[in-house]
Amino acid sequence: MSPACGMVTDGGFSIIEINPMEGRMRYLVVVSVFFFMLVMGVFATAQADGRGVYVKCIGCHGVDGSKHALNVSPPIKGQSAGELERKLFGYLDGSFGGDKKIVMTNVLKKLSEEDIREVSKYVSEF
What we know:
mainly alpha; Cytochrome Bc1 Complex, Chain D, domain 2; 2 domains; two-stranded antiparallel sheet; 6 helices; 55% helix; metal ion binding; heme binding; heme
């Protein structure tokens, strides 16, 4: 037995006494490990994932990128990752886009550069 535990017998029953501090430490360790794993899972999920980013695009571009967004732009399906990146970053810096580019600009402002690269790679595989 550890020094924190002791065994007391009481009329034939064995009672194990645990130092309250040891119980609290064990609880803190378990809770800390749980939160560490939770946070790591959140960070792993938060990292750029092209498929996860593209979910926001399906309404206008379709599940496979073959839809004419807002009945104006050509489908994005079949474009290379480099071409898509150039266009997406072009929306942000004002060097690309037509009359309705504000729609794309507002969407892209919420994404990181890594998100844009990952979604470009993802869409290029359609």
